[in-house]
Amino acid sequence: MSLDRGIGSWVTKQAFLNGDRIALVDGTGVRSSQTYTDFDNRTNQLARALVELGVRRGDRVAMLLLNSITFMEATFACAKLGAIMVPINVRLKGPEIAYILADSGADVFFYHDLLAAEARVALQEDGVRVRHCILDQITVSSPSSSSSPSPLSSGQSLDQTTSQVPATADEYNDINYESLLSSAPSQPLGMDVDPRDIHAIMYTSGTTGRPKGAMLTHANAIANARNVVLIPPSISCADTTITVAPMFHIGGLGVHSLPFVYVGGKNVIFPTFEPQKFIQAMADHKATVQFLVPAMWAAVSRVPNFDSYDLSSLRLALSGGAPTPLPVIEFFQSHGVPFQEGFGMTETAPTVAVLDAEHVVSKAGSIGRPLMHVEARIVDENDRNVPVGAVGELALRGENIFVGYWMMPEATEEAFKGGWFHTGDLGRVDEEGFITLVDRLKDMIITGGENVYPVEVEQVLVRHPDVMEAAVFGVPDERWGETVVAAVVLEQGSKASTEDIIGYCRERMAHFKCPTQIVFMDELPRNATGKVLKTSLRRQYSGIEQAVTR
After folding, report:
1. How far apart are CA 550 and CA 328, in angstroms?
2. Is the pLDDT score of 206 beyond 60?
């Protein structure tokens, strides 16, 4: 057996305990399913191949990958050799991808052929030092073949960030993924990966307008898996989930994708989300446990003939990433689906609290109670506990809490003042221990499960030649939870239109970050010190003051 004490050992141990069980299923049918023995052998091969490329413990391996078996193989191959995976949001534009490549110092870059256009842009930017590019073909054949369409053709649009013509490894002397993997033997490396080693840098938006890399250790992932197992009804090797929430996010990766390997369950993986095909997959594969973000659950609830799909195997439906509208919860409960809500963050790997099915309606608006191995406090500005019912900042402690922000010691120190992780969320706790978030210290917007920080959008807006000032805020949206709105003051004499400004943003940012509405103003509302009053803007255009509502 391997000496590995990190999460790479999960695959090896499951191959020993449950080697013949199915670990991974390609929902598109492009690739064969893998048993845990297959999974272990292939991750051993990939780990050895990466070592031959010069990858060492602590080196960063970036991944611009859609949900896929390749994503899981790269994740666990990195874990086995002690390298650090850096997942990248596939909806980002080239310059945004380049920032993460440069900031992380990634040496190796995995990407899918359908994401080649933005990958190529990123690789040409200053500061990027990638030495090896590894290209994985996710398409069955060329787009001209009518018999074998791309798996994306039936899925949700990726904001047109994918290349319309899939790339090939020969075009830029990239390394073909399957060729690389098959070049190495399947014997284990036998490395002793310390649980304190960093296994992933997950980038999350920051108030400076640049993403921050949250450093998650193997110990964090192990603690998170234990937390997930303790969410009733607990998961086991007998469970199946449809992995469709994006794994480049901590929710898609950490809620079920990684914990399912920990317990030896089955991951059925789809690269994109299309509600009707998804619910059909749940029925076909007899999914027992399922995680989605609220916008996805809402879309599923609108599938015609919902009751015609056999979801009788489903034991747990979990929503997270944003507040779930009460009508959506009530819809699933009325159809016999056991629905729960969870709360987590990138920095917490991610599980923190769960609002169980028993209380999901009676305590609607709450994030629930902290999980077994998570400590939570509501504190004032002096880090003193506030009384029950009083508002303060949510502070957390536990083995699932990250160890800091990559190359940002000051931000790390600020986040961990007093030895507790300060989340930036304002909330209160009731007599039964249920926590309700009422606002955010930072004005983050959550749209369709994606985090958007206004300052990042504002920095793009003010570079528009006709924009003098801009203030970005979120307002409630029935479909996405929140939508991005920009209040804009134009330069004198400008005739710029809403379409002009939104189009400008869409050329420079992922579409989910871009405003869906532009409010033209003569001046922005400010307080006596000149600070823009976003609470006033939210109240004026949505009738609420909070950045996040439940």
Report:
1. 13
2. no
- Copy the structure tokens of residue 380: 């004032």
Residue 173 and residue 71 share a domain: yes
The whole-angstrom separation of Cα 132 and Cα 61 is: 10
Q: Is residue 140 predicted with pLDDT exceeding 60?
A: no
Q: 217 and 72 share a domain?
A: yes
Please give the structure tokens belonging to residue 400: 């699932």
pLDDT in tens, 230-250: 999 999 999 999 999 999 999
Looking at the fold, whether 152 and 36 belong to one and the same domain comes out as yes
Domain CATH number, residue 463: 3.30.300.30
Give 528's contacts (C-beta < 8 A, 6+ positions apart). Answer: none
CB 171 within 8 A of CB 36: no
Instruction: Please give the pLDDT value at position 532.
Output: 81
Q: Which contacts of 167-175 are long-range, i.e. CB under 8 A and separated by 24 or more positions? A: 167/113, 167/116, 167/120, 167/135, 168/113, 168/135, 168/137, 169/135, 172/120, 172/133, 174/133, 174/134, 174/135, 175/132, 175/133, 175/134, 175/135
One-letter identity of residue 192? D
**Rg from Cα positions in the chain:** 23
Overall average pLDDT of the 52-81 stretch: 98
Cα dihedral: 394, 397, 402, 408 (round 10): 60
Q: Which residues are within 8 A (CB) of 362 and not within 5 positions of it... i.e. 6 or more apart? A: none
460's enclosing H/E stretch is: helix 454-461
Tell me whether residue 549 is in a domain. no
**What does residue 379 show for φ and ψ, rounded to 5 degrees?**
-125, 160
Whether 185 and 47 map to the same domain: the answer is yes
- 457 and 389 inside one domain: no
- Which helix (H) or strand (E) segment holds residue 322: the answer is none
Residues 367 and 461 in one domain: no
**Residue with structure tokens 């983050």?**
444
CB 18 within 8 A of CB 268: no
In a domain, 487, yes or no: yes
CA distance 322 to 297: 11
**Cα–Cα–Cα angle for 58, 137, 178, nearest 5°?**
60
Phi, psi of 74, deg, nearest 5 = -65, -40
Residue pair 109/101 in contact by the 8 Å Cβ criterion: yes
Same domain, 97 and 232: yes
**Cα distance between residue 458 and residue 250, in whole Å:** 25
> What whole-number percentage of the chain has pLDDT above 90?
75
**In-domain check, residue 305:** no
Give the sign of the dihedral formed by CA 104, CA 105, CA 110, CA 115. positive
Burial pattern 58-94, b for ≥16 Cβ within 10 A else e, equals ebbbbbbbbbbbbbbbbbbbbbbbbbbbbbbbbbbbb
pLDDT mean across residues, the chain: 90
* Count: domains in the chain: 3
Q: What's the domain range around 412?
A: 322-401+408-440
User: Mapped to the 3 state alphabet, what secondary structure does 158-215 carry?
Assistant: CCCCCCCCCCCHHHHCCEEHHHHHHCCCCCCCCCCCCCCCEEEEEEECCCCCCCEEEE
Asked if residue 281 belongs to a domain, the reply is no
Q: At 30, which CATH number?
A: 3.40.50.980
Same domain, 425 and 514: no
